[in-house]
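Thread: quick sanity check before group meeting

JM: Hey all, I'm pulling together slides for Thursday and realized we never actually wrote out the predicted structure for the chain we discussed last week. Dropping the sequence here so it's in one place. If anyone has concerns about the input, flag it before I start.
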Amino acid sequence: MKKNIAIIMGGYSSEVEISLQSGQVVYENISKEKYNTYKVHILKEKWVLVDDDENEYPMNKHDFSVEIKGKKINFDCVFNAIHGHPGEDGTILAYFELIGLRHTSAPFYQMALTFNKRDCLSVLKQYGIKTAKSYFLNKGDNIIVEEIIARVGLPCFVKPNNAGSSFGISKVKTASEIIPAIEKAFKEDSQILIEEFLDGTEITIGVFNYKGKIKVLPMTEIVSDNEFFDYEAKYLGHSQEITPARISEEVHEKLKKIASQVYQILDMSGFSRSEYILVNNEPYFLEMNTVPGITTASIIPQQAKAAGISLEELFHNALEMALNHNS
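JM (edit): ok, ran it. Output follows.
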C-alpha cells in the first residue's frame, strides 16, 4: 500500500509565497509511484487540499483528514515545507504530535527553540559555541541608543527575533539609523535582536538526518552583491553562492565538526541550514533554519547536488526517516 503524504505549504508569515514555491518543488520531486502525494495549503483564512486542477477541498482540523468526492483520505505523514509561522516555529507540529501524525521536521520544542534566535544563541553559548555580541529588545522596552552601541558597536544588524528570509533586517552604520531599523524589525516581530557586525566570510551549512546518521552537506560561501545576504540576495539573484566554499581543509573540518555538534546540542532531526561567519578562520554561529528553502534557487538543493544526492532522494529520505521514527 502506498503511503499518503500531505505536503504542507504556505503559512501565516511574510514567507508564504516562498513556502508555496518550496512545497511545489517537493510535490514535483516525490515519486508518484512510491507515494500518494497531496498539496495542502495552510493559510490564515483556510486550510485546503489543492489538486492539480486547482480545485480546493477543506481540511478537517479534527484529524487532518480530507474528503474528496465522497472518499475520506487520512495521511500517514506530513512533509513540512512551511517557512516561518506556524511550520518552522513548531506550532503546527505540536498539533500533529497531539493527533499522532508523523512529520519530516524535528519535534515542536526543538523547532520553537531554533526559531527563537535569542533562545537558540543562549543555549549554544553554554556549550562554548562562538556567537556575535548581542542586545535584546521586547516591544515597549525603553530604547537607549548609547547603551546598544556600547554593547554591540557600529555597524550592527537589527533583526526580528522570530522571522526568516531576511524580512525586517537592517544593517545599521550610524546611531541615527538605529531607531528606524528597530521600528522596521518590530513590524515583523514583538522581539528583536541587535548583533555586532562580524567582518568575515559567510558560510551556510546544511545538516540533516540521512539514513539514520547526521550528514553535513558540502558548504556554501555567500558573496552578496548587497550590504548583506538579504531577501534580494537570497531570492532575486543578487549574490554568488559558491559550493563548495573556498576554504582550507583545516577550516572545513573545523566547521564540519561544529555544524554537527550544533545539530546534536539542539537535539535536531530533519533538515537544517545554519549560517556561520568566519572571522580569522574561527566560526561564529549566527542562526539555524529548520525549514530551509527548497525552491530551485535555494541552497540546500545546491548542496545536495554537490554531494551527489538528487532532490527525489533528499525528499524520500526525509519521509523514510519520519515514517520509520519509533515505528
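AS: nice. DSSP finds ten helices and 18 strands in the chain. The chain has a mean pLDDT of 92.
JM: adding both to the slides.
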